[in-house]
Amino acid sequence: MHTRKVAITIPKKLVAMVDDISKKRGLSRSKFISMVLMERVISERNRYIKNTYDHIFSDESIKEEQLNCARWFEGLGTEQGQEW
């Protein structure tokens, strides 16, 4: 993974907490902060995707179209299942 140095300013107490946790986990400060940031970025991306889906499917016409399409597909199969 390519890396880049950045300078950030954070409270001393937070640095102490990060150092304590990273030391207990056997990680460098940079590795621990990178892991935490990655978790947060993924969480934010997932929240955005969920909110976008929720917004799109809150439209009654889209919701009805999706339900009708699903019902149509359900009607195509046999009891043994649909062969694709």
Structure description:
The chain is mostly helical and 84 residues long. It has a domain at 28-69. The protein is built from three helices and no strands. It has helices at 12-25, 29-56, 60-76. Helix 1 crosses helix 2 (29-56). The protein is elongated, with a radius of gyration of 24 Å. The model has no long low-confidence stretch (mean pLDDT 90).
Mean pLDDT: 90
- The SSE string, one letter per element, is HHH
The strand count comes to: 0
The amount of beta strand, in percent, is under 5%
Helix content: over 70%
Stretches where pLDDT is under 50 for at least 5 consecutive residues are: none
Tally of alpha and pi helices? 3
Q: Report the C-alpha radius of gyration, rounded.
A: 24 Å
Largest sheet geometry:
none
Distance between the termini: 40 Å
Q: Structural class per helix/strand content?
A: mainly alpha
| Outline type | elongated
Q: What is the element layout, followed by pairings?
A:
Elements: H1 12-25, H2 29-56, H3 60-76
Helix pairs in contact: 1-2
Summarize the structure.
By secondary structure, the protein is mainly α. The protein has helices at 12-25, 29-56, 60-76.
List keywords for this structure.
single chain, 84 residues, mainly alpha, 70% helix, 0% strand, elongated
